Amino acid sequence: MAFEEFGDYDALGLAELVRRKEVSARELLDEAVARTERVDPAINAVVVRHEDFARRQIEAGLPEGPFTGVPFLLKDLDLIKGTRTTFGANLYKDHVADHTGTIAERHLAAGLTIFGKSASPELGCMPTTECRLHGPTRNPWNLDHSSGGSSGGAAAAVAARILPMAHATDGGGSIRIPASACGVFGLKPTRARTPVGPDKGEGWGGFSCSHVVSISVRDSAAMLDATHGPEATSLYYAPEPERSFLEEVGRDPGRLRISFTDRTPHGDAIDSEVAAAVRDVARMLEGLGHHVEERAPVLAADPSTVAPAVISANTGAALRSAEEAFGRPMTSDDFEKLTLAYADAARSVSAIDYVVALQRAFLIKRSLTSFFERCDIFLSPTLCQPPVRIGEIDTMSDRLGEIRPLLRRYVPGTSMFNMSGQPSMSAPLAWNAAGLPLGMMFTAHFGDEAMLFRLAAQLETARPWKNRLPPVRA
């Protein structure tokens, strides 16, 4: 039978109902599947479905965890043995994983029932989710606009209330960008806070990490409690938290020193409604008792000179692995034009170029470390424009050179915190006149997710977002 109140609960709330036997894991799964069938034809967020796997989980008996019985989606870049993962690429449309990734193992241990995979751009390389294999994932607030990327399927599914929380990853903004575009909460953890194994020790030179997008702050905190910590093959790991992250939610953040900017990291002006929203939030923070000043970091290197080398090299390595596995060169039948262009560019990136890029990333980290000596939190726009329209960033275009300057205008401020490794979150605190969400990005010191969770809970109380629902929803 349908559980009609499903959308009123966050993930911890649903787990509590299961714990009290007021609803069963099977009923929650049935409701999530029904919601997918109702709303996904419009938004195209769930691109791989394996309800049979989730039903077998329930039949076998779910482990006792913080989210026992709660339906969940894994991003279509990660693995569960015996289920399809396509990486958004034609080449892998029928790929069935022969093992389970470490992050998915921790999701399963938390008691989640994983009934499918959420859409990602091909290999997770773009801030919009419009891969050729599955088609565009649309924004529930306006179907003509992008849901963001690369965790666009996860954010669209949560925003449309298919489920309250979904897996996401972030190598250059891919949790925060779709969280902003879709009006949900998304926190990128500190570098190495969550595992990336067992097949690799780091992603994108250490820039990439996993977590979730969610309706509530407390779900994000509880999930980080469930998934954080090194694995046996970790190259390095984040500092241990003082207490559980869930305990931080609701704790007094104190009077924080908050710096803010309403411009890009290059000093350029941004969309006027986004800039006004930043200043409005800055005033709200002052009203909450924080010390707020307009001040932006001066970076010793440009993040846009680092990302291309790192992304190209990693994409080139992924295509080389594919060529070795399939025993042939990769063609446009296998991958999109942009992916092939990245791999081709990697051939001109020398080992020296790659090391120089990582050295520049370190200079960025050093600049930000100095900047944060005078503040606890840095507020900036997650996106410097409203969510782009579907088709505006075209990975199959013959004019791929137009993408880079567009990204410089659209999303220039997220990747530097992947390079510094700092925790950074997007909170849904503003909407423009057209009704599109405008996420605000807050970044803290390295290792200090606790501060972000305390502040996020305060913001969630001061300006609640849970009941702001998009026109397209389950």
From TrEMBL:
This is Indoleacetamide hydrolase. It comes from the Bacteria. PROSITE patterns: AMIDASES. InterPro entries: Amidase, Amidase_CS, Amidase_dom, AS_sf. Coiled coil: none annotated. It comes from Roseiarcus fermentans. GO terms for molecular function: hydrolase activity. Keywords: Hydrolase. Belongs to the amidase family. Hydrolyzes indole-3-acetamide (IAM) into indole-3-acetic acid (IAA). Pfam families: Amidase (PF01425). Residues 27-452 form the Amidase domain.
